[in-house]
Design brief:
This protein is of the alpha/beta class. It is built from 12 helices and 8 strands. The chain has an 8-stranded parallel barrel with strand order 1-2-3-4-5-6-7-8, surrounded by 6 helices. Bound molecules: 1,3-dihydroxyacetonephosphate.
Length: 256
Amino acid sequence: MGRKPFIAGNWKMHKTVAEAVELAQGLRRSLAGITEMELAVCPTATALHAVSEALKGSNVGVGAQNMYWEEQGAFTGELSPLMVKDLCRYVIIGHSERRAYFGETDETVNRKIKAALAHGLSPIVCIGESLEQNRAGETVDFVGEQIRGAFADISAEDARKLTLAYEPIWAIGTGLTATPEEADRIIRTAIRDVLASLYGAATAEAIRMQYGGSVKPHNMAAFIVMPEIDGALVGGASLKVDSFTAIVRNALEALP
Ligand code: 13P
């Protein structure tokens, strides 16, 4: 079976509860009836409950932006898998902003993935290289290592449940993007080939890959038509009904 396209919005640290609900209600209307593609939005923790209620029974899923791996305990400020599962289905793990500003490593990413899977959540795992690494020609090695770290001790059956988001750090929030051809090449050589070496080709081919980094309505189609790219993780352009809807519609039109 082919990989179902999947576009998700990462709202990052934006929107009060009321603003988040307004956006969710708008998307519920504008994206109604789309079944060819999986859709999700990831609001801040404070808005998760209200947004989940606003999107209940719709075709737009909801995800958290982060999660700790323990079920409960003295971990001030953290959300547990049980708490996330109470409210939504998806969870973003290992976003480059979390790695850069909040000390996340391949090891903590791996622990979080395992906890998410153990609780039946669908993780969206982010990987991607910095500008320096890109310029030094280290992208394939670095991203490959991130993949090996993220998937350590994860079975093939569980691996298939992950969505990976390849987000070159230098393309996030900058208006710059990798070219679709370059993103496709990195996903093939640094991600899917590494997964094939870990799990075999069939499992590697089953895992969905999103591109992330300055995805906008005008460039979505060029990414989604690439053979390795199954969708997008959208930051800034997911914060408005019009732009996120245009991204989804442009992707749908471009699909075969
Ligand atoms: P932008 O779309 O704002 O570049 O953000 C991408 C991103 O980090 C999504 O997780």
